[in-house]
Amino acid sequence: MIRKTRLYTPGPTPLLPAAQFAMAAADIHHRTAEFRTLFQKVLAQLKVFVGTKNDVLLLSSSGTGAMEAAVTNLTSPGDRVLVLTAGKFGERWTGLVKAFGCEPDVVTAPYGQTFNLAQIRAALKPEHKAVFVQATETSTAVRHDIEAIAKLIKEANSQALLIVDGITGLGTTHFDVDGWGIDVLIGGSQKAVMIPPGLAYLSVSERAWAAMETTKNPRYYFDLRKERKNAVKGESAYTPAVALVAGLGAALDYIAGQAGGDLEKGRIALVNNAQVNAAATRAGLTALGFTLFAPTAPAAAATAVAVPEGMDSGAVVKALKSRFALVIANGQGEMQGKIFRVAHLGFFDYLDTVALLGAMEHIAKDTLKLPVVYGQAIEAAQRVYAEAAKQ
Ligand SMILES: *Cc1c(COP(=O)(O)O)cnc(C)c1O
Question: Which of 26, 48, 77, 248 is the most buried (most CB within 10 A)?
Answer without folding.
Answer: 248
